[in-house]
Amino acid sequence: MFERLGRFVVGKAWWVIGGWVVAAIAIIAASPSLSDITSADQESFLPRSYESVQATELAAKSFPQAATATATVVVKRSDGKPLTPADEARVGQLATALKARNIPQTSGYLTGPQAVAPDKSVQVVTVGLDADSPDDPGLLDAVRDLRSALGPDLAGSGLTAGVAGDVASFVDNEDTFNDAFAVVGVATIVLIIGLILIIFRSPIAALLPVVVISVVMSVTTGLVAAAGKAFDLNVSQDLQTILLIVLFGIGTDYILFLLFRYRERLRAGDDKRTAMVVSVQRVGEVITSAAGAVIVAFLVLLLASLGFFGSLGPALAIAVGVMLVTSLTLIPALVSLLGRWVFWPSKAWQRPPNATLSRRLGAVVGRRPAVVAAASGALLVALAAGVLGYKADYDFSAGFPQDTESARAAQDLQRGFAAGALAPTEVYLTTGNGSPLSEQQVNDFAAAAARAPGVGQAQPPERSTTDPSVVRINLLLDENPMSNEAITLVRDDLRDAVHEAAPPGTKALVGGATAIFADINSANNRDLSVILPVAALLIAIILALLLRSLVAPIYLVIAVLLNFAATLGATVYVFQGLQGNPGVTFQLPIILYLFVVAIGTDYNILMIARLREEAREGHEPHQAAAIGVEHAGPTVAAAGLILAGTFGVLMLAPISFLQQMGFAVAIGIVLSAFVMSMFFVPALTGLIGHKAWWPGHGDERRNGGGRHAAPESADAASV
Which Gene3D superfamilies does UniProt cross-reference here (predicted)? Predict the structure, then answer.
């Protein structure tokens, strides 16, 4: 099949390239923008069955005047002394003056005695921010205008003010975010070009992946946006960045798989067309199987209860599918036309390489497979033990620079009020049938809610102006509302206490940011418990079909899952152990699933396919392991270094969760490429021997065998 595909693509190269150009232009021109299907609202990705979503829906219906978000103006004396009655009156005047400015998309400007801290250190003015969605850029402008007005309105008063809140924090850190992702984009291109230049010593080979994948990125974005419109999918704002990394990660892998084999065939004496046909024949099955495993891993996300995962899966599956087709059609067509010029001006491809690091490593694996398997396996197990100490961290604000206006204002606010003042836990009481709540019911419930576990302060009940059957009470927690402790508290003790406090004939719902993250925590745990086993099973089936074996897929999947645990454990050791962080970002397990489990499987498939190929050439298991590492090792090393280096650059960002993500994925890819695929899998395969290929006996020598390729130890092995 792949031989016929190779002959068609090489024989009709110009037609293939022309077809790609026409299709790309048509898709890009006709597709909607990806921004049309993006959403920044975490709660919108939760199913309606979760209580925080029900609370949000009740709030939208019963408090339609409620703002999309809020900005909290925190006012204090310049000399640090407690506020005087005159100061409090001046803050009231400030609220009136700000409201009179009619700053677009703002409302409310609420303050008063209840907005003064018990210790008189600060007073707040709560400003509503109005928009159709939380990611409306007009909200950022509203905060900027609000800040610009504070200086003139407080001039000569002896008071200073700062604006806190999620939107204000985003304004302060917008440049940091943009700079971080710009660095990632530039670093990706620089690393790809730089490392491929070192490997092939050719600017053409180095630029080929960048140019092709950039076109594929535009095509994929259009297809994803079209699919989102057709199936009414909302995706996270992070999707563009994730697509970029996935496409450059797997795209570079697949192109390197082809280029290494193409160079090998040229060295063996094939002409440029035959070399590409044989390369597609040999590597096409590997690329297809690897892409199939990644697509399956991404589509398994459809089983997730979190909408973010469910919408992310199809988008990434489309990206991998497009890259698969590109790797088997456009890349072979281009390279077959370029021929030896793809490696210009280097002449190294013409010479059989000298003994290299990959040959020496292969010899070690072949001579001592038991020792290598035990040592590499023990390293993975030791790192995986760190998972036992894993704690999720939901506090994004703690990971941002703390010298910004929003961070300083938030610190002032938390010193004067309960820790949860910036993100109150919203409790709703309703009769559910439209009958009005009595004053007795409201007062009794409010008193009981104020005594609930972890509550520092309770604000006065607020009746709905449109529905007499609903009342809202904001609770300020003693804990940081985004901390793991607060999330556990709300999910368990506080919710139970509030539910029990609801008078007969009424129902209580707990909402707010902490409750949303508590539900995300529950959904996240449920999703991972479903996604990982199902993905492992489906990947094992793909491996079984590729290898026609039931034994090898078992230990290959175990190796992938062990590598996942080792990566998460290593991150826990570094960030919770060495740095003393309260936890690692709650998004990390799914990020590792995307980039370590899914993409890391590519390296396993490439290595095991090469081991089978060498066994079919008549080599005994130990020798096949040695030659397999020698030949496939440089490809795995180059691909792994490019992807790991791209993520590693994130560690330079001054944002904690980006540092954690960069470290975790970089170390995960390094472990996948250099520990699991280079040592553990080939050593274990050599140790198990012919039984690894049972019952299909895929290692049996084919009729008319004999080596199809001259021995090669790629000169990139030292990379």
Answer: Multidrug efflux transporter AcrB transmembrane domain
